[in-house]
Amino acid sequence: MSDATDEFDVIVIGAGPTGENAAQYAIAGSDRTAALIESELVGGECSYWACMPSKALLLPGALADRAGAMGGLDGTELDPAGVLERRDAFTRHWDDASQVAWATDAGIEVIRGAGRLTGEREVTVGERTLRARHAVVLATGSEAVIPDIPGLRAARPWTNRDATALRAVPGTVLVLGGGVVACEAATWLATLGAGVIMVVRGRSLLPAAEPFAGERVAEALRRRGVQIRFGTELTEVTRDLPAGADPAPGAPREAPATCTLSDGTELIVDEIVVAAGRRPRTDDLGLDAAGLPPGTGIEVDDQLRVRGAEDWLYACGDVNGRAALTHMGKYQARVAGDVIAARAEGRPLEGSRYAASADHGQIPQVVFTEPEVASVGPTAAAAREAGHDIAEIELDIAVAGSSLARDDYAGRAKLVIDRATDTILGATFVGPDIAELLHAATIAVVGKVPLETLWHAVPAYPTVSEIWLRLLERARVDRG
Q1: Could you tell me the residue range of the domain that residue 174 belongs to?
Q2: Does the annotation list 180 as a binding residue?
Q3: Which pLDDT value is given to residue 243?
Q4: Cα–Cα dist 341/67, whole Å
Q5: Cα end-to-end span (Å), the chain
Q6: Is 300 annotated as a binding residue?
Q7: Name one GO molecular function term (predicted).
Q8: Annotation-wise, does 387 bind a ligand?
């Protein structure tokens, strides 16, 4: 029998934003107790190696671009050292004291170490065994995948953790991949002065987005001097590194790497950034103790309950494979927390708050390249594949608001419309500072707002949001 101090109402393994939200919502407004287990930094990947530091590295360059494209301004010279200092401020120099203080103030006990399931409602951390009265939540996130390429792992390449924590700007960098992480990393590295070469196995960047999004990001990267080698693979890496422990994230590897490509080209670079996908962190969770096979993902229902252990086990965020985005993990955690609280209090699970639906085709995402890419819902191709009869409305963003925003404004917008319901299934916007247009589109998609109703949502003049009027006008013309 565990000591009373080792019993909690809720135990959460993983103290990133998802785990924090799950613990907070599960005990909010009650005398329930929660433990938050973390083997690294409380605040997780997003706070220290992903969302926050990457945006801190990207936005100064975007502002410098905007100033350089604004008549009446002299432009702004980017200070790489200052950008890194500002990044350090947002990561609090990789110190999680403030996050721990938040958890403590919220009535959540932080336990350091690697949590592992060892039985029903039982978690072991080191030599300590914890028991949950109501629920255990798995929120361990995901980790970068290092492809099985000869010499690559031995060369100690950078992952997103190194690229966001870089100590100094490398001279030359090979970025492996063409997705979101690859495009964002290529953007800030090039902006800070690195020579960047992207090696992309496919024929486009951002392949999950509308085609014009990847095309415009590729054009912008090339203008920054980035070389993009499409249809090419990295086949071998050689690097003469001294033996020893892996260096700290962002530390230079202190020896160049020779990279051989599938077309026979050899490149000598200072660093390699691997952005070739991520996988759920499930290997050491003890899933077998819950009667679950180890694997790359954990299947959950819309209440985030783990299939096969619905009475007590939940999984939120990247670890369940539904939508690998911080804001979606936090959304799932809020739903799971509400479900746990209701079940603990014997309340019925009635109403939409107790079921996650936004990660079924209504997922918003922003790629913070320059230009930004903001999207929600399926692309036209994905909507057709799902069986929808759709109309497509696609226009350049050329309105009074955009012409005022910067002198060289260039953007494009697209709506995917369900003909049967006359509502928007998906929307994509590409352009400078376009991210703030996304929430309006998300509301229209989630709310299934008819186009005739949207016609009366009048965009303010002069703003970039005027593109909504142009899109709706085109939709009226196309429908006749």
Answers
A1: 153-276
A2: yes
A3: 81
A4: 49
A5: 73
A6: no
A7: flavin adenine dinucleotide binding
A8: no
